Amino acid sequence: MPTSFNMDNMPFSLLNESEQALLRASLDIGYYQRGEHILTAGGEPDGVYVILKGRVSESEPVEQGQTEHVFVHYTNEDYFGGWSAIKGKAIHNFVAEDETICHILPTRVLLDLISTNSLFADYFQQNLAAKSEIVAQHGGDQDMAEFMLARVCENTIREPLVVDEHASIHHATALMREHKADCVLVQRGNRYGIITGTDLLNAVVLDGKSVDLAAAEIASYRLITTTSEEYLFNALITMTKQQIERVVVVDDGELRGIVELTDVLSYFSSHSHVIGLRIERAGTVEALREAAEGLNDLIKALVSHGVKTRFAMDLLAAMNGRIMAKLFDIMVPRDMQPHVCLIVMGSEGRAEQIMKTDQDNALIYRDGLDWPEMPAVMQAYSETLISFGFPPCPGNIMVSNPAWVKSLGDWTQMLSDWAQRCDNESLMNLAIAVDGKPVAGNPAIFKAGRNWFLRHLSHNDVFFGLFGKAALEFDTPLTFFGNLKDKGELDIKKGGIFPIVHGIRTLALEKRVLATNTFKRIEALIADGHLKEKDGRDMCEALSLFVELRLRQQIKRIDSSQDGVDQTPNIIELQSLNKMERDLLRDALQIVKSLKKHLTLRYHLGN
Amino acid sequence: MIIPRTIRKFKERIDHRNGPYGYLFEPYDGEEVVSLDCETTSLDVKQGEILSIGAVKIRGRKVLTSDRLDIKLKPPGSLTGDSIKVHKIRASDLVDGIELDDALEQVLEFVGNRPILGYYVNYDIRMLEKFLRPRHGFGLPNKAIELSHVYHDIIKWKAVGGNVDLRFDTIASQLDLPILERHTALGDAITVALMYVRLKFGEAPDAHY
Fold first, then answer.
1. Of A4, A26, A34, the CB nearest to B180
2. Whether A547 contacts A584, CB under 8 Å
3. B171 domain residue, yes or no
4. Lower CB count within 10 Å: N or C terminus of chain B?
5. Per the CB < 8 Å rule, is B66 touching A106?
6. Boundary (domain end) residue, out of A434, A457, A480
7. Per-residue model confidence as pLDDT tens digits over A191-238
8. Which CATH number fits the domain that encloses residue A544?
């Protein structure tokens, strides 16, 4: 088509004259009625579609009877289907919402242009990555080409070696050697036990067991399992947390196979487990410090690989928790550890921080514990964490501050005082404290305090009203007509993240949800019927979008700043977002708005 | 002697069926249609000269703009002020045009035995035949599809008793289609193709007149 195709739009404006001529010569025009499927998920696309006139929606394929979930609308001059074209298979349904006329750029020509024009290719592919990332967040489990989101089932499951319960240790060992495996499963009735090479060595060499003994005797029957639908990434987190090297894959009670750590590791370029191992093996503060320094790079690598922010947060929280636990282990005398409990609070407690943020931690100890060195040890502990790159808390909520080192009785007293007083400072402290999570020492002490406090609060509607009000404190940056308010930039923490986190915190506190992570809290609230599933899912999506956008801009600012410090961590610059991201942001802020409305009604917060 | 068109076409088919252009006379059983438009110096076939020819194939509901014909011809002697005002083609725009013989050859090859679609298509066909017949001895045997008839057949049910406005621009705006490059042969051919696809596959438009 000679001139009806607008070459001024990105990315087509990047093409040179002869490439534009090629593009023009290759375009077709398609006409679609309202409601017609331009592309159906799984079908083979003709190419990239550029809308000349009309409106097209992109949605997830759904079973019959379910409501369709539309990700995004495309209108005049938008293009769609690029990702599908490159993959050769449509990933979503593209449906004409109005009568639509599209230019169609055939896949063959698209690939030619990508191979001849690197700028075009960059823009095109980068945009696709961004797009698929957002789509992946929306769909929950949509395909992200990244191997990071590979599922357990794909090609990491190994055939398990299974012996019956009468097989001898000798037989099991021979079998393992024959198959070059280093673990074997023992079937006992309908249960399975696992024997690893280490188990065999310990049994025969150390415990002097006979090689004719039934292997079933030395197997361990407490299997750590996963399902084949699980993300490989989560399997890795499980292994990291449990400090094991393999998990058993079980689907609906049926044994599928075994996932080995080495296989998982070969999937990951960023050595997350290597860091985990180094943390675990660190015997001194110095060794631990070295391990901790790898974390920032790890996060950057994960994010640049397009791993979902939520998973990155999970992993980072697990890692940070283990660094603190390990340091605690090194610095606190063995005999004191069962009597104290170190908790992390705030974003760390919710497992929602990405870059290392302020350390918010506290220590609860058993009533009547006699340990005179405690203040000095805690002081040193905080300082060591600071030297690891965990910045000190500006509000001084750290174990080096005696106000945050309390006996169980004083701790609960402090919480109930705050709940009683309900002034701004108390409420802020409470908000931080109720996100607490034990990381080291004896978790039972913390749990006792928490459970008491939740019971103490129940049915105290006045408190929840005052507590929840903070979520409404900042205006949602949307105009009366529902568009983005600020042209330049907006504070995403005030406008989006805090209202969701705090609103959900209030609901969770009232409904006595024990989880501290906002996503898990939402899931729990849905499961208990306190939140509609659709609303909850929308909130999860909105929150992960906010966090994701914030993180991407943070990393950009840190990379471009001289001292590696981001002065304005919560600012989103709207110009640097593309149209689709802005649209998503707007929709997400709408969700925040409706949550606020819900809170207002729920806790009678009308002004 | 004026021989009726149908009889003449029948005779031509008998004469040329086995000639080098025999394929033109085969009945067409595919699903493609060619939308064709000529820009000429006059609306009178007898006086007119062809300036440019545009054609594009339609397959199903797709307009294959990648498979198209866009021919400019050498400027004829009759290129004068009046027609220049309409199509804005000056002699200087046609200096790199090709000979009429080559152009006809390309048109025949492009169109083949597919039906020809156009807006007042008979004018375009007769214009081409005027030059084709002296050279090859036959006219275009293809089935002709008249866009305004297609439009009229659909709209007449909604415009009972009224006269249907069949002006090009009216049809385009009734169908809510953008007009791409009015008065270039290819642009008109594409617009007509879009209108055809819209009429064939879309909902019937409302009749406002």
1. A4
2. no
3. yes
4. N
5. yes
6. A457
7. 888 888 888 888 888 888 888 888 888 888 888 888 887 777 778 778
8. 1.20.120
Q: Say if residue A445 is in the same domain as residue A501.
A: no
Q: Is residue B42 part of a domain?
A: yes
Q: State the CATH number of the domain containing residue B83.
A: 3.30.420.10
Nearest to B198 among A3, A4, A31 (CB): A31
For residue B3, being part of any structural domain is answered with no
Domain span holding position A171: 157-259
Please name every residue paired with A226 in a beta bridge, in sequence order, or none if there are none. Answer: A249
Amino acid at B157: W
Alpha-carbon distances of A558 from A247, A561, A563, B46, rounded to whole Å: 38, 5, 8, 76
- Rounded distance, CA B144 to CA B131, Å? 18
Q: How many domains does chain B have?
A: 1
User: Cβ–Cβ of A4/B178 closer than 8 Å?
Assistant: yes
**Helix, strand, or coil here: B119?**
coil
Task: Flag residues of chain A having pLDDT under 70.
Answer: 1-4, 8-11, 62-71, 122-151, 153-156, 266-278, 281, 294, 296-308, 354-357, 479-483, 485-487, 561-567, 606-607
- Residue B39 has a pLDDT of 87
Mutate which of A31, A32, A33, A76 to test chain B, going by most B C-beta atoms within 10 A? A31
For residue B116, the model assigns a pLDDT of: 92
Residues in chain A: 607
Note whether B52 and B89 are within 8 A (CB): yes
Of residues A411 and B45, more confidence is placed in A411
B127-139 pLDDT tens trace: 888 888 888 888 8
Q: What is the DSSP letter of A206?
A: I
Same domain, A354 and A385: yes
DSSP B73: B
For residue B33, list chain A residues with Cβ-Cβ distance below 8 A.
none
Whether residues A432 and A322 share a domain: the answer is yes
Same domain for A527 and A583? yes
pLDDT of residue A130: 53
- Per-residue pLDDT at B108 exceeds 70: yes
The domain total for chain A is: 4
A163 close to A172: Cβ distance less than 8 angstroms: yes
CB pair distance less than 8 Å for A33 and B187: no
How far is A256 from B26, CA to CA, in rounded Å?
63
pLDDT value, residue B35: 93
Domain that holds residue B58: 31-201
Q: Is the ipTM of this complex over 0.85?
A: no
- Looking at the structure, tell me whether residues A556 and A579 fall in a common domain: yes
Whether residue A577 is contained in a domain is answered as: yes
Mutate to test the interface with B, among A28, A38, A50, A98 (most CBs of B within 10 A): A28
pLDDT at B115: 92
**Of the residues A235, A259, A283, the one at which a domain ends:** A259
CA distance A180 to B143: 74
Q: Among candidates A166, A224, A176, A167, which has minimal Cα distance to A201?
A: A176
Interface test with A, best of B32, B57, B58, B63 (most A CBs within 10 A): B63
